[in-house]
Each structure stands twice: as structure tokens, then as C-alpha cells.
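Subject: mismatched residue count in predicted assembly?

I count 294 residues in my input, but I want to confirm that the predicted structure covers every chain. Input:
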Amino acid sequence: MRVSVEITRRPEIADPEGTTIMRALADLGHRDIEAVRVDRVIHLDVAGDDPDQVRARVEEMCRQLLANPVLEDFRVEVDE
Amino acid sequence: MRTAVVVFPGTNCEKDVVHALTSLGGEAELVWHRETDLSRFDGVILPGGFAHGDYLRTGAIARFSPVMAEVGRMAAAGAPVLGICNGFQVLCEAEMLPGALIANRDLAFICRFVDVEVTDTSTILTRNATLGQRLRLPLNSYQGNWVDPGSDARVTLTYLDNPNGSQGSAAAVSNAAGNVVGVMPHPERASEELLGSGDGLVLLESFLQSLVPA
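Triage response: the counts match. Full output below for your records.
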């Protein structure tokens, strides 16, 4: 099964890359942008045919390794 | 008294650390990250570099290297554990230190001498230093910006000019017991006047004097 994990930085954690991109966009004339955040998506192909089980396993992987609980939240999407 | 200097794939400051410790009369030995027994050592240093390519997040994969279980055991037993630069990032990911390290505020790799001030002298890194003592050390990092929302962490060293945006200007932090410390600038690269500064010596001497037989 194809699984997408979206890892987002918590709102209270600064995102220097997002801020830099926002400034560059402003330089290009896009001055109406209020915030830019750069997040990460990880795609996994997981063996198994029970979407709930696959989701639970991937969520466990997020807690173990894929996301840092100090900085990040995660969202798992399973393509059924 | 022996110090294990851990080498992950991508570590690149291990020989500098061994050289600096040895020149102070310490005994240090390189240990590959797959080692599972550190019982012959009295302390551990995780040196700088790019462990496991810094993939995913700095330190995220190194945290699961086999040696880290032993590093955790020694830390819990009160042995001195020091992470320098990338080693600091590994200790945060391993939750042996509070917080996490993100990209520098201005997204620049910073490679220059910085001035820091000693704010806590009850750690294995600073026991020989004096409170308020100023040290000139080389900083060499892209992900040196320490954050820990709502933190009550013990800050060991602070930057005078906070070059990377670290919370509380922290250049080094410790665990509650003071035996696990992460430091972003490199004391081992300031261990001889020939290198531009000998200010790192007091920190490495502190580490060596904190070693007690396991």
C-alpha cells in the first residue's frame, strides 16, 4: 500500500527556510503573502492489505524515527 | 581512565578530539558505532561531523546506532557524556538532552570563532571554568540553532552575539544531572594557541577530570 507521511513543523518553531522563501517572493512582487512554511512528505510502499494496520504501523514509525516530537507533527494518509 | 570517541559513518572530528584529549594526558580510543560494549570506558564523546549523512534530521538515524544503547546506559550511570556539534544533535535526538537543533536563523553555514560565556560550572564540561568566564571557540555548523519550547533546560554556555538564533543564546546545554552535555562550538579545535585559541582546554580538562573509574 502507498502511504504518505506529511511532517509539519509546529507553529511555535521558527522555519528559517520558509521565512527566506517569503522574503524572496516579496522581492518578486508577491507582497501579500503572510506566511510560508516548508514541510516534508515521505512516501512509503508498505506490504499489507489492512489499511488500519498499515496506518498504525506507519504512525509508530513516525513516533520512532520519522518525526521529532520536539519540533514536528505528522499526518499519515493511506491510499486504499 | 579511558574515553570512547564514537565514530559514526560521516563523523569527521574524531581524530581532533583524540589528539586534544591525548595532549592533555587523557586516554582516548576511537569506537565504531556498531560497538555494543563500552564497559572498558569511563566516559564518551560523540564528536562532530555528519553522522549517517545527516539524513532525515541531524542525529535522527545515529540515535539508533547500536552503540547508543551503551551511551544511554553510561549516561544513566552518571558517567561523563559529551556531544560536540553533530554529537550535540545526536544527544538531543536520543532524548538524552532537552530540545532539538534546527537550521541557523539566517540559513548560513557559520564557520568562524565565536565568543561564549560560562553560565553553569556544575557540569562535566565546565567544572574547571569560572562563572562568567569568556571563551573564544570555533563554531562550524548549519543546524546549530537550539530550540526547546517552554524549556527549563540548564544552559551551560551562552553566545555573546547569538550567531545562529539559539533559544536563550544557548551554545551548550546539559541534562539535569550535569553529566550529559552538548556543545555546538568545538573545544577540540581551540586546544592549542597554534589553532588560534587555547580556550577549549579548560572545557576538555573539565571533561577529563570528571572521569571516575566505571
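The helical segments of chain B are 14-23, 67-76, 86-93, 201-210. Marking this ticket as 'not a bug'.
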